[in-house]
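Re: beginner question about structure tokens

> Can someone show what the tokenized structure looks like for a real chain? I only ever see the sequence side.

Sure, here's an example I had lying around. Input first:
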Amino acid sequence: MLTKTQAIVLHTLKYGESRLIVDLFTRSHGRLSFIVSVPKSAKGKVKIQYFQPLTILEAEADIRPTLQLQKLKDVRLAMPFASIPFNPHKLAISLFVEEFLYVALRGEQQNEPLFDYVVSSIGWLDSQETDFSNFHLVFLMRMSRFLGFYPNLEGYAKGCYFDLRESVFADSAPLHHDYLPPQEAKKILLMMRMDYPTMRLYRMSHGERNRLLEVVLRYYQLHLPDFPEMKSLSVLKDLYA
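And the corresponding structure tokens:
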């Protein structure tokens, strides 16, 4: 069926001399893989630059559920980037977010609220000149709401533990090892209070930011099956050192 939809580039793999296999998260059909022919001529309508990390596209595709690789009929930029590819800090964050989404959205069906959240978040990062160092923390924690394991904050009290498996605060340590002690548990509450406009008010050291990132990724590993180690994590940890 011929469909027009917005799409987010998750991953690109070269296939032969002039073709790409591109994983897209589409607004209309969720996660799909496409085979794309890229003309060698600069005059071609489809350009390889369209398939850079997290690029937002307007795509027209012949989507057939029985095919593993769909075919793009037409594609153009929906939201050209003004700064992400040119700012080394933003580029490192975007590469991490791209790798994270590539894993977290495996098998994701149509989810328009999630799609809109990702697009608006990428747009915010691209437009922001300063104060975006906590972006990836806010992005990951708030995305858990769309995937069904947003932390339950109602039971928090001073001195509580946080059970990473059950996503709840507890008066005592669980019998397993996947929990945060009180000193770290209260930072879950802190992170859930942050959003993009206000996160600049929450100052963190380099070590604190990296520790929270480790906690968030462990949280995802517990709630999404076969969630791997992130290859781009070491680069992101080196930011703002």
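Each token stands for a local structural state, so reading them left to right follows the chain. The radius of gyration is 19 Å.
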